[in-house]
């Protein structure tokens, strides 16, 4: 039994006339009659009673018609779903992100993607960069926004954005009114680092910059999240070095100060499994690149690898 047998049967059952059903199907009547006969022979059931003047459904034919319609509907839906997934219009994507991504490009990426591809379900997971790498390797997410970028076997990726770093100081700090603050100015201050784990991480980038400035900072606290670090800065426990985009988030008791040029920077990268991209992931990356270019045009960020 093939789907065409069901379609032929449903057409005859709807019209209760072989001639009109054949016209609807764009075939001649004799082949249609043979197909219905083959279907009945294969099933061992009479579906239609025929006379020279009428065609009627048998009781078995009426029951079969109901289910044949359901099967054809499901078949059509299956084709539509497959086509939409192949076009990147349906399905699901697991997206990981570090918290600081929500201060820059991630909100606009999500807004644009949802507007253009409403049939794709986005499963969002806030994770550290190291957790995202593991989740990608385990197949739990499809793409991650990581900071910094760390090459990994079996993974591909690209740096998409570079932004300057800033110092986050308590508003009672002696340099709170200064137009800018250097690493050397902060050598005597306790530092609050994030994320604490895993390593290597953004925290290691900050420690390396301190080393370039000629000192090893006193680490008063290591946190998992940037929000916790800012809360501790507000509590006058120490200072933190944060991506410039974090300064968009006003925090009572915290002032943000630029570092003198050439200011050190931090990079945002996307990572994904190496190999052919699914259509949905390819569409998502197109929007990532477009948003990165738009942010770069503002002059506050530098877009990278977004041809």
TrEMBL record:
Q: Which Pfam families match?
A: HTH_1, LysR_substrate
Question: Which SUPFAM superfamilies does the entry mention?
Answer: Periplasmic binding protein-like II, Winged helix' DNA-binding domain
Keyword Transcription regulation appears in the UniProt entry? yes
PROSITE patterns registered for this protein in UniProt: HTH_LYSR
GO cellular component terms attached to this protein's record: protein-DNA complex
Q: Name one GO molecular function term.
A: DNA-binding transcription factor activity
Q: Which UniProt keywords apply?
A: DNA-binding, Transcription, Transcription regulation
Q: What is the similarity comment for this entry? A: Belongs to the LysR transcriptional regulatory family.
What name is this protein filed under? LysR family transcriptional regulator
Task: Name the source organism.
Answer: Capsulimonas corticalis
């Amino acid at each position: 039994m093939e789907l065409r047998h069901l379609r032929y049967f449903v057409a005859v059952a709807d019209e209760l006339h072989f001639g009109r059903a054949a016209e609807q199907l764009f075939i001649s009547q004799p082949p249609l009659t043979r197909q219905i006969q083959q279907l009945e022979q294969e099933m061992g059931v009479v579906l239609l009673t025929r006379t020279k003047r009428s065609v009627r459904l048998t009781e078995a034919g009426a029951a079969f018609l109901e289910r044949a319609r359901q099967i054809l509907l499901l078949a059509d839906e299956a084709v539509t779903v497959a086509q939409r997934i192949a076009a990147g219009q349906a399905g699901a994507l697991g997206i990981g992100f570090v918290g600081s991504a929500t201060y820059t490009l991630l909100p606009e990426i999500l807004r644009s993607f949802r507007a253009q591809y409403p049939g794709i379900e986005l499963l969002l997971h806030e994770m550290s960069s190291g957790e995202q790498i593991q989740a990608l390797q385990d197949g739990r997410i499809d793409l991650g926004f990581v900071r910094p970028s760390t090459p990994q076997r079996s993974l591909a990726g690209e740096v998409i954005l570079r932004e300057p770093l800033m110092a986050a100081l308590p508003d009672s700090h002696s340099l709170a009114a200064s137009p800018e603050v250097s690493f050397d100015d902060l050598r005597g201050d306790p530092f609050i680092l994030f994320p604490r784990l895993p390593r290597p991480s953004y925290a290691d980038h900050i420690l390396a910059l301190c080393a370039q400035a000629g000192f090893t900072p006193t680490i008063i606290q290591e946190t998992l999240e940037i929000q916790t670090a800012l809360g501790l800065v507000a509590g006058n426990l120490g200072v933190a070095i944060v991506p410039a985009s974090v300064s968009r988030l006003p925090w009572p008791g915290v002032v943000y100060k630029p570092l003198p040029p050439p200011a050190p920077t931090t990079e945002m990268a996307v990572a994904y499994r190496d190999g052919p991209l699914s259509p949905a992931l390819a569409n998502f990356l197109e929007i990532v690149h477009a948003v990165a270019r738009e942010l770069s045009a503002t002059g506050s960020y530098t877009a990278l690898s977004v041809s």
